[in-house]
Amino acid sequence: MSAPSSTTTGTDWTRRTAAELADALAAGEVTSVELTQAHLDRIAAVDGAVHAFLHVDAEGALAQAAASDERRAHGQLASPLDGVPIAVKDVLATQGLPTTCGSKILEGWVPPYDATVVVRLRAAGLPILGKTNMDEFAMGSSTEHSAYGPTHNPWDLDRIPGGSGGGSAAAVAAFEAPLAIGTDTGGSIRQPGAVTGTVGVKPTYGGVSRFGLVALANSLDQAGPVTRTVLDSALLHEIIGGHDPLDSTSVDQPLPALVDAARQGAAGDLTGLRVGVVTELGGDGYQPGVLARFQESLDLLVKAGAEIVEVSCPSFVHAMAAYYLILPAEASSNLAKFDAMRYGLRVLPEHIDNPSAEDVMRATRDAGFGDEVKRRIILGTYALSSGYYDAYYGQAQKVRTLISRDFEAAFEKADVLVSPTAPTTAFKLGEKLDDPIAMYLNDLATIPANLAGVPGISVPSGLAEEDGLPAGFQILAPALADDRLYRVGAALEAALAAQWGGPLLDQAPALEGASA
Amino acid sequence: MPDISRDEVAHLANLARIDLDDAELDHLAPQLSVILESVASIQGVAGDDIPPTSHALPLTNVFREDVLRPSLTAEQALSGAPAQEQQRFSVPRILGDEQ
Questions:
Q1: Where does the Amidase domain start and stop, copy by copy (chain A) (predicted)?
Q2: Which of A23, A33, A413, B18 has its CA 20 to 30 A from that of A144?
């Protein structure tokens, strides 16, 4: 592994965590404009190789940073992270900034409004560096299904950064942004987090507003933080979370004290905590190095005072099948709005004089959607068709009930449930592109949480011995108990960092001079 | 588990309003068969006594006061339209020749 950036860590602001940057801003050691410029410089230096961003808004970010510095000068901070820059997955609407969802069908679309998450980021004073790359409409586990080309994993540029939020995870792992927003429908925050050595959190369903998030499968989608530390995720989660009257599925309850939980967890005492190891989320199909790192993390939790219990969730074996029926069904309905009439691409079919709206719609959807999107829309159309509905979609919805019951039973025995986040480390770009099932298997361990709406976090658990690539440790908690993720995640992170002698990402390649 | 034929895929694509060319149909049909085969295990997993869950959390209808509030202007709403005319979305003809 190469050494960190050539600039010393003392002056390289891109190497600091968001919490450290907030402290440096508070101490007057740096301005938000300087911080933002440092990250824009880093993006200019390495994003040609990583391709984490689809759109960089240098001018807008610097203007927001200047406004933050102005506020600070007047002692009027908007939030604990005021002035700390962030990157946003391109599935969230950003007023005045292109939003494409990684699809040709939305190329060049500039929304006239902000998603609630973005409204809250702006109100909290976080300069928005740009929009990050993603699998088209968040369909994928590798960010290879972006219409604008894949993102590369900063640990090994020949490998995938996970998906669908590979851009957000890679931006954070490559020190292009201290913080990012992702969305997690079947694991798209946690799985990229695992394979890039970053922290990714899927909050409780409804815990963060989905208003302005272009829906993939609305009963599963959840926006959340992508960061380099557990504390940073807690700080960001407190800014974006909480009730939103514009989202009818938003939970109308106060958020638990997430930052307090992270700080408490970092002290390292987990006495009395019951940690449930899910039998069905380990073993066959899991890479030995990933399992070894998982076991090591479990041992550290025991040392911190936790008690390990084995729990069985027998319906989890059906979660993937249920997910790959429910998701396409909802997606086929949600993506019907891309009809070439109100926004996005309009393609006039060749060889048809005076084409009808339907002709234009067909031609546009063929030209504008990529293979994976077409595959899932057609699968969803099938699952919802008369004659198949009960056998597939109806059964999938019942399996969802069984999975929720499994979680309820498991949470009677344990306070949190744990597993490896993804069965393997990052695979090579192109390796699984023609094998959808192999690709879908990456989400094996993350999907049950989306079906049941419970929150989950992925914390880096180290490097797998066989390939030297990051693995992730997943922690799941009951709905609305997101604070448990932060308490346990921060305790594990502190114990691991003590063992490694610093953050895992310090071991990542420097990337300077790399080209795609 | 039924194999999904090329014609069935063409029919589904038609329902989903996506024009697929021959090469796409040849490529998609076998892939969809494999996917359907792998999700077929779900049939019969849960009996009649298991209620379906459509949403992770119980949904309740959400109302707001019936009062005017700011919204997008016509210009904003039309800003992403592929074609517009007289402050409206301009769309191709909707009815076919025979209608």
A1: 34-485
A2: B18
- Residue B27's domain comprises 6-43
Tens digit of each residue's pLDDT (9 = 90 or more) over A316-341 = 999 999 999 999 999 999 999 999 99
Q: Is residue B59 part of a domain?
A: no
Q: Which CATH fold topology does A13-314+405-506 show?
A: Amidase signature (AS) enzymes (3.90.1300)
Instruction: For residue B2, give the chain A residue with the closest CA.
Output: A388
In a domain, B36, yes or no: yes
Question: What angle in degrees, to the nearest 10, is found between the helix axes of B6-15 and A371-383?
Answer: 90
DSSP secondary structure of A399-456 = HHHHHHHHHHHHHHH-SEEEEESSSSSPPBTTTTTT-HHHHHGGGTTTHHHHHHT--E
Tokens of B13: 């694509």
Is residue B74 assigned to a domain? no
Angle, nearest 10°, between helix axes A18-26 and A230-240?
A: 80
Would strands A199-202 and A456-463 be described as parallel, antiparallel, or unpaired?
Answer: antiparallel
Residue of B4, B8, B12, B18 to mutate when probing chain A, most A C-beta within 10 A? B18
Considering only the C-alpha atoms of chain B, give the largest distance between any 2 of them, rounded to a whole number of Å: 56
Q: How far apart are CA A61 and CA A78, in angstroms?
A: 16
Q: How far apart are CA A491 and CA A485, in angstroms?
A: 10
- Which two tokens mark A32? 């938000």
pLDDT, tens digit, 9 for 90 and up, residues A93-118: 999 999 999 999 999 999 999 999 99
Nearest to A141 by CA among A118, A157, A159: A159
* Cβ burial A5-32 (10 Å sphere, 16+ → b, else e): beeeeeeebbbbbbbbbbebbeeeebbb
pTM, to two decimals: 0.96
- Chain A contact present for B93, CB below 8 A: yes
Instruction: Look at chain B and report how many structural domains it folds into.
Output: 1
* Domain CATH for B32: 1.10.20
Of A320, A343, A397, the CB nearest to B80: A343
Query: Does residue B67 fall inside a structural domain?
Result: no
Element (H, E) at A278: strand A274-278
- Chain B residues whose CB is inside 8 A of the A357 CB are 91-94
Which residues of B, range 2-21, sit inside 8 Å of A by Cβ? 4, 8-9, 12-13, 15-21
Quote the ipTM score. Answer: 0.94
